[in-house]
From TrEMBL, chains A, B:
The keyword DNA-binding applies. SMART domains: HTH_LACI. Residues 5-59 form the HTH lacI-type domain. This is LacI family transcriptional regulator. Keywords: DNA-binding, Repressor, Transcription, Transcription regulation. It comes from the Bacteria. PROSITE patterns: HTH_LACI_1, HTH_LACI_2. The keyword ATP-binding does not apply.
Length: 377, 377
DNA sequence: ACCCGAAATGTATGCGCATACACTCGCTGC
DNA sequence: GCAGCGAGTGTATGCGCATACATTTCGGGT
């Protein structure tokens, strides 16, 4: 690393001009084979690696696409960081007494989106740079990311609107997993509504259920809202009355859902008076707005001796791994995480090709996974 | 995106020189407040985002750190890509009849490593660029990555030696999760040996086990080898005879482990002659070189009516999520994935600070998770 | 008012590369 | 024997910024 060799060094060593060196790398067919060989030898001997910065500057395009995620760790400032494991520390023995399974869903989610993006980027010869819009210096971080890339895919809600508007003046922006929205950006969204609709259609048509309730999510979650709409679509299509509001709202966490479930259970019991049979007052099916919610309900229902799917049918949304491990396994709707990343990059590329096209929205299809919790084998 | 504004545009609009604009961004304290305000206004009005390429070129440092992963998808060429989900396709209904839980361990693993790296990079104001050394154009991809970063963290085995040597002449390289090796690079490794040692110490000391066997991994896995060494360390320390070779070798997959387990079970049974009690011939404890192997064994043992930990004690290594969902839950050793990424970036930074220091190797401690499969509560 | 040092700002240059354009050859065709 | 041509190569320039250095402005002391 004494001093990284440049085109000039290579040119001198190979006895050619820098233009030829550059051509050997960029447009090999324009150079005679014998010359090419000489240059390659010089490159190899010197350990030459072209500077991406210089190339990017000269070519007016970096060949890098950016991916911007929200901060799932909830770290606001440098001080919030947990201490790193100290090097040389002894092996730690932990008596793991159980408790809720570690929730790494969001990490997996982001990881898969990244994988999809990287895959598609690689296919087309792009590199991927990631950034997390986190902390007080968020604006600066996002700006720097935007300054280094040819296009930026942003996970919905990870960047404040004004900041997004600012960087969008420099690079094309694709918003991932947000609600289809009528702004100036391209969008990749997940078909929450159609997914829930298909799931509930199945519950009604194939399992003959008519008494269904929807457990919603936070008020500010567009996903939860869309899923509720899908729920209503299905009910209406079946000629059933569709509620205006979810029967309840979870905070999307398993623990929160447990509390909610306990409350609901009590209400139903007391509301029916003493001596009533457990759970009879519950809806026949609970369609939850996400998996964590469904799993929390499952915990409480099982604990209370209410059988799933016998007494109550339960479904989730997202397709997290834990839904395969629960008893019974949870019927859910699987998110196209990898596709999300791929589609975002694909859309960015087409935007770069045709900057003038009107903003596009791509709605990705989902997959309904039918398992035991809805009564399927 | 008509034409991204530059410092010149901002300078003109603000009525200052480009040097002042640059200073407002890089060293705000050198600029009078009133001037700063004017410049910031111009920046905001024009939608100015500094070019990372130009800055990198001028500053001779990009502020980007690279992360290079192997291709876990096994994609060699562009043609190998699975078709992306088609847009506008209908919701797919999948009857999920069970089978092995989807193995997303490696994705999670890489994702967590990335998360750790990003976290540490963010802390110090760096960006992270990822690359997957995949396909036939691997050399080019890695070169481009190296050309764009100030330092590169490479997952062991993801880059061929000669290529690594080439790029190491341009940027500092840290090798992650490889065996401690005496090459010119900095290394971050996981203390496989001490982890297994501690685990087996526990089996011997706390559970009084004396008849233990090690289920190894592939011959070419340094990790598996180190874990075996830890196993032997513990036996020897307890005055027990230590085998020269693992009792068997798995291919690190759950399915492969199942096959292996069945074969072993048959051998033991037939070797003992008819009428013998099931499983009595098996070792009292099976220390597996990774979790997938242990889970595969668990599948087969359970199927055969052999109780874990009653008849056979079983342990794994890695700490994948599935070990929390198995019955019984698997005692294992958890990998410091996030720390791996953090430590890599930390090491890169110190290397950038002091290029002259001798190559360093950091050995990350692991955590032993004691659960039911070894007899712990 | 004037001088001097510090603070603030401007000017000029180079980072390493891609590329437009100019140039040199070796041929072909006449 | 020379114009014309294309393949191969060299020369010169600019990409947008950071920064060394030059210059101006400002404030305080006398």
């Amino acid at each position: 690393m004494a001093k990284a060799p440049t085109v000039y060094d290579v040119a001198q060593r190979a006895g050619v001009s820098i233009a030829t060196v550059s051509r050997v790398l960029r447009r090999p067919d324009d150079v005679r084979e014998s010359t090419r060989t000489v240059v390659h030898e010089a490159i190899s001997e010197l350990g030459y690696v072209p500077s991406g910065a210089a190339r990017g500057l000269a070519a007016r395009s970096t060949g890098v696409l950016g991916l911007c995620f929200p901060d799932v760790d909830g770290i606001d400032e440098v001080d919030d960081l947990p201490d790193p494991v100290r090097v040389g520390e002894a092996v730690e023995m932990v008596r793991d007494v159980g408790g809720p399974v570690t929730a790494r869903w969001s990490n997996l989610y982001l990881g898969e989106v990244m994988r999809g993006a990287e895959l598609e980027a690689w296919r087309t010869g792009h590199a991927v740079m990631i950034g997390v819009a986190r902390g007080l210096r968020r604006a600066q971080a996002v700006n720097e990311l935007a300054g280094r890339v040819d296009g930026l895919a942003v996970l919905s809600k990870s960047v404040p609107d004004d900041l997004l508007a600012h960087i969008a003046r420099r690079v094309p922006v694709v918003v991932m997993a947000g609600p289809p929205q009528d702004d100036a950006y391209d969008h990749i969204s997940v078909d929450n509504r159609a997914g829930t609709r298909a799931l509930v259609d199945h519950l009604i048509a194939d399992h003959g259920l008519r008494d269904l309730a929807f457990v919603g999510g936070p008020f500010d979650s567009p996903d939860a809202h869309e899923r509720f709409q899908g729920f209503r679509d299905a009910l209406r299509a079946a000629g059933l009355p569709a509620p205006d509001e979810p029967a309840a709202r979870s905070d999307f966490t398993r623990a929160g859902a447990r509390d909610l479930a306990r409350t609901m259970l009590e209400d139903h019991l007391t509301g029916r008076g003493p001596g009533d049979e457990t759970g009879r007052a519950l809806p026949r099916a609970l369609v939850c707005s996400n998996d964590q919610t469904a799993l929390g309900f499952l915990d409480v229902l099982t604990e209370a001796g209410i059988e799933v799917p016998g007494d109550v049918v339960l479904t989730g949304f997202d397709g997290i791994d834990a839904t395969q491990a629960s008893i019974p396994r949870l019927t859910t709707v699987s998110q196209p995480m990898v596709e999300l990343g791929r589609a975002a990059v694909e859309l960015l590329r087409s935007r770069l090709t045709d900057p003038g096209a009107p903003p596009a929205t791509v709605n990705l299809p989902v997959r309904v996974l039918l398992r035991e919790s809805c009564g399927c084998a």
